[in-house]
Amino acid sequence: MMIELILATILIPLAALITGFFIPGLERKVQARIQQRIGPPILTPGFWAILKFFYKEKIKPNSPMPRLFHSLPIIGIFVMFFAVLFTTPDWWGVNALGTVVAVVGLLKVIEFLFMAIGSFSRSILSVSMPYADQIKGAVMKGEYRRFFEQQSVIRAFKMITVGSFPLYLAMFVPVVLVKSINFSDIVQFQGFDASLIYPGGMIDLMYLNKILSLKPILFTFPGMLAGFVYFIGYIMLLNEYPFSIEKAKSDVIEGPSLEYAAWARGGYYLMRESILFVLSSVFITLFIGLPPTLNLPLLLVHCLLCLIMPILFSIVSAFSPIFTFKQIYPVSMGFTALGFLTIVLSLLAVM
Amino acid sequence: MGEKARKENAEVEIPIGLVHPGMLEPYRARFFVEDEVIVDCELTLDPYHKGIERIMEGMPVHKGLIITERICGICSHIHLWNGTRAVERGLKINVPERADYIRVIMAELERLHSHLIYLAHATEVLGHETMCMRAFTLREDVMDLLYIISGNRVHYAVPIIGGVRPRCDIDDYRMSELKTRLSKLDVKIGDYANRIINDSMIMSRVKGSGVLTKEEAEKYATPGPTGRASGWGVDLRKKMKEYKKFDFNVIILDDGDNKDRVVARALESIESVKIIKQALESLPSGPVSNRSFELKEMKFSTSYIEAPRGEIYDSLSLDETGRIRSYQNRTPTLTALASMEVACIGDQLTDGMLTMASCDPCLACTNRAIVVENGKEKIITEEEVKSLIRGGL
């Protein structure tokens, strides 16, 4: 049991990392094809670019706390690895961590991390640009001059308050349907039997057959609605188009992460890849009923299913402009209302 | 909201630039915002100067005029044409009709090129990479045509005093290429504009943002399509003798918002294709240049022309040996700056940058510098400029 726990703790984050290497490339490839371009090789943005960053000259960031600023993406990566571990059968028994509430808590940490990153960054591209713009005759007002990153932090805070509802509401639809916050109960409800799996590389044909006989929540009416709401919430939490106001290139450029360079930028991209994988993985566990396990064929199927959501969101991104808060508020409110409706429908379904 | 009220409402300042990926050129935009809403804006220019007007002084007019192309990398032909036109008007040089047609064809191709870059840039600032890429794809055909006629993609050097360069004459091959490639371009641009107008997500961003009223456009003399999108209908092409023979519409829209500025450019592009098609159909035969003129002293001669971004003014004088005594040029962006500052008030910060882009600024063409010391103009050396920059101006 202990060996399996150790193996799961090492191998599943590794699988997440390897799958994550492919996700940015797939995103870019899909968008490029929509734009009638060839696009980069699949592994270039997610792996080779990061490897390149690790070999670049180390640059001290313009930050009041450079070490903490540099360590935040690493913290983010670990937080995400724990989030995916909490959904694995081997961790379900560890201090009751295998619950939806625990994963929601970790996702909240990630949302807060973006605010923390922005708070510790002071890029040269705005206030500290060496240009004499407060010369005689220029308008001299506004006692406080704000860095891009600080503006991004305000946007991140707004997104936490209005933008994160859809995702969390959708995550609780399976909870309501199953009447349990435990991942074990949720996947069991959908036909997954953890006792039948065993670690190893052999293909268990009997179990692969069982995957086809799963009864995913996604294929119920509340599940479909929740899946749709989850998808929108997923894009919002990732700060991707059209909800990428936190890092809108037209004004705040890269937003909180503007000062990351060299290995720190590589780390930041790894954190993003981890978030992309984990949010997809949690969706597969909650709505398809297939958690990441030590059984390699099942893990492979799980990782392949995790690629679907990034592909879908890259299609949406390719056809979307950036929304400002004028558009984000009504869209977010609309999907929050849909999330509530789905919860109500789920309650009616179990009554 | 009055100016005083605006100033009192400004909570913080968000300075953007000089170096910024949302800007095509270096300039400083200082946005004064209340939460995310812009209550005031100030643009600060002058990070660089080309010194073209000064460089041209004393140069032989043929050489000097070529430098006017370097004023802008997008509308280079129109600058050279206007400079040449000023000399031709001053020295009363007749230009063959065929040359005028070729100049118009080049100017309209350049307008297409400029408007398509505009559409690409505006959609990029909007965050819509796919529409940006599609605009660039459309532009590529136009760039090929400019290359086929002139042999270059940026600085075409087509007009010369008295006509156009013989190498730029439109022969059978060029005629067939132009006709083939232009045959579907207006439809493609129309489809592109329809895609933008029918996309509710794009419309939610551009409709009602960056509003510049007709009164404001008149007050600040907003040039070109930006002014026309606000209902202020000034198009110098309707007054130019070179355009008299062509039938085309001046696109005037009413709302004056970002949507209208984008749509105005798309519709103007379709009109440009119309003009080129007419010019190709009725291209007169004959010489493309008149070389029987004599360069002599010329007092100030001026010329106005409708460039893709609006009105360009050139003023030129020559000495008795045909060298340039003085040259002045005013680009459309100079009068668009005040409009840009006004139009973005009331927008979200992100929309403010879109409004800036939608007014189509070309700041490299606009920057001028005169050093005045003790009431007299002073020329400063390169070293002095460097030392000024090092000292933070």
Question: Can you describe this structure in just a few lines?
Answer:
The complex is a heterodimer of chains A (351) and B (393). With 351 residues, chain A is an all-alpha fold.
What does this structure look like?
The complex is a heterodimer of chains A (about 350) and B (about 400). Chain A has one domain (about 1-125, about 145-350). The mean pLDDT of chain A is about 90. The longest helix of chain A has about 35 residues, at about 1-35. Chain A starts with a helix and ends with a helix. With about 350 residues, chain A is an all-alpha fold. Chain A is built from 13 helices and one strand, in the order ααααβααααααααα. The radius of gyration of chain A is 21 Å and the shape is globular. In chain A, helix 1 (about 1-35) packs across helix 2, helix 4 (about 100-120) runs antiparallel to helix 5 and helix 6 packs parallel to helix 13 (about 325-350). Chain A has helices at about 1-35, 45-55, 65-85, 100-120, 150-165, 165-180, 185-190, 205-210, 220-240, 260-290, 295-305, 310-320, 325-350; one strand at about 145. By secondary structure, chain B is an alpha+beta fold. Chain B has one domain: Cytochrome-c3 Hydrogenase, chain B (Orthogonal Bundle), CATH 1.10.645.10. In chain B, about 50% of the residues lie in helices and about 15% in strands. Chain B contains 16 helices and ten strands. Chain B has helices at about 5-10, 50-55, 60-70, 75-90, 95-125, 130-150, 170-180, 185-200, 200-205, 215-220, 225-230, 260-280, 335-345, 350-360, 365, 380-390; strands at about 10-15, 30-35, 35-45, 160, 165, 300-305, 310-320, 325-330, 370-375, 375-380. In chain B, a hairpin with a 2-residue loop joins strand 2 and strand 3 (about 35-45). The longest helix of chain B has 30 residues, at about 95-125. Strand 1 (about 145) of chain A pairs parallel with strand 1 (about 10-15) of chain B.
